[in-house]
Amino acid sequence: MMDWTLYPNFSEDEFRCKHTGRCEMSPEFMAKLQRLRIAYGRPMTVTSGYRHPTHPIEAAKARPGSHATGRAVDIGVQGADALRLIVLAVGLGFSGIGVQQKGGGRFIHLDDLPDGGGFSRPMVWSYA
User: Is this structure's pTM higher than 0.85?
Assistant: First the structure.
């Protein structure tokens, strides 16, 4: 059982899979995310945390993605705040950064997966 008191700016409920209700976040990832939150100095809205491999988004993929590893999060943010978050995240060692800054669902994806195992890292991408 993870000690969520170590991550005072986040709650377990924010990271629960919206499909299964499970939460299997990595403690190491959460520690890094907490450091990012402190450096950022502003609230961070989690729009997607852990996704179980049976979650419809993960199940539609050839193989489950980074959210299914417990080492990824999507943060609702836009504009200059998004750029600032990206700069801080790179400095703290986040290795996967996805940018969605069009339309109503603007967010930044962050993960810290290593290179290999089907994930090419470091990597920056934008969502179509």
Answer: yes
